[in-house]
Amino acid sequence: MTDRTVRVGLVGCGVIARWQHIPALARISGAEIAAVCDKDPGLLATVGKKLRSVERYEDFGEMLSRAKLDVVDICTPPQTHAALGIQAAESGRHVLVEKPAALSLEEFDRLAEACQGHGVRLCEIENKMFEPVVRRALSEVKRGSIGSVTGVDIKVLLRRTAALAKDPSHWCHELPGGLLTETLPHPIYIIQAFLGAVEPVAVHVTRPDLHGHAGSYEIIVVLEGRRGVGVVAYSGSSPKDKVVIDVHGTRKSLRIDLWNSAVLEYRIGGAGRASRGLENLRQGLSLLACTASAVTEVATGRFRGGHLQVIDEFIQSVRNGTDSPVSVEQAREVIRVLESIAEMAAANRAATP
Ligand SMILES: NC(=O)c1ccc[n+]([C@@H]2O[C@H](COP(=O)([O-])OP(=O)(O)OC[C@H]3O[C@@H](n4cnc5c(N)ncnc54)[C@H](O)[C@@H]3O)[C@@H](O)[C@H]2O)c1
Fold this sequence. Notes:
Elements: E1 6-11, H1 15-27, E2 31-37, H2 41-50, E3 55-57, H3 60-66, E4 71-74, H4 81-90, E5 94-97, H5 105-117, E6 122-124, H6 132-143, E7 149-157, H7 159-166, H8 179-183, H9 185-195, E8 198-205, E9 218-225, E10 229-235, E11 242-249, E12 252-257, E13 262-267, H10 273-299, H11 306-320, H12 328-351
Parallel strand pairs: 1-2, 1-4, 2-3, 4-5, 5-6, 7-10
Antiparallel strand pairs: 7-11, 8-9, 9-10, 11-12, 12-13
Helix pairs in contact: 1-11, 4-5, 5-12, 9-12
Nicotinamide-adenine-dinucleotide binds next to helix 1.
């Protein structure tokens, strides 16, 4: 289908669809939003007005039966992903789905089997893996420049998740692990990318319950693999957004500042005052260089964030018959670990007097 435009039907016109998927699809050559669907008629009208000549549906089944589509892009809450994905696969459409692709391994396997059985692709959006700074760090690690990876620490401060946790009517409270299920897929797949297979060994949530909306939400998760330890620290009370990933190696460490598009190096050794000062200087210069490059890319419209990159690669994989940018096995590993973390958190809560 190389020459043909991939026709996309997008379901769920909420936050992520409007902020990321719709603008990304508009920039991708060889893709076209053919139809949008949302069960909320007001939202559907607002989004539909901006996308002239795009078909609008309040009912997903109707979109599948009436619209001419190659791909269904699922941007609804996670509770609906597996059911909508299976319906899309049964209608012969490729499935692109926001994280988490499913709420349990059992659900994910049903979705993957439906896709395989109907000969269509399944791709989970793991956008942070496609951010330029994460890719740069990963390729350095693959080249061996930091030595062997020994650990990954991720600090996550996000106003969006902190705000939705406080909204008692938000769907995140109905997820198996509450906010934890909504927040952790990103750090899990990042840690897996640097450390390989990992298992959760400790989970701490500073909440009286996993699903409530009162009080601050701090989550700490420790994951252990053959190559090292990964630590995720999520803070739900920060007034600012920040995601920092420290990747430690036997020769040096890398600090990926996802929010500010920067990668800094921390070298091992050199405990004297002069070498500490030099390290400060080197990091300052790196930060300046990263800032200048990010500003130029944004100003010239060349910046490609993680969503644009992963959606584009998926569309091109459909057009060219090449591998999907996120494999089914990779997505399955995220769901397996996520489910296990939610179970550990629930067990910890139950054991707390
Ligand atoms: N990758 C990221 O960085 C990122 C960031 C934010 C959200 N997300 C993910 O995106 C998904 C959506 O999150 P959001 O914040 O945009 O949610 P949202 O609540 O803002 O939007 C969801 C929309 O889906 C619609 N919907 C629900 N069920 C439907 C159905 N059966 N048929 C048609 N429409 C239906 C709702 O009416 C709503 O408009 C979630 O899986 C979330 O985890 C990912």
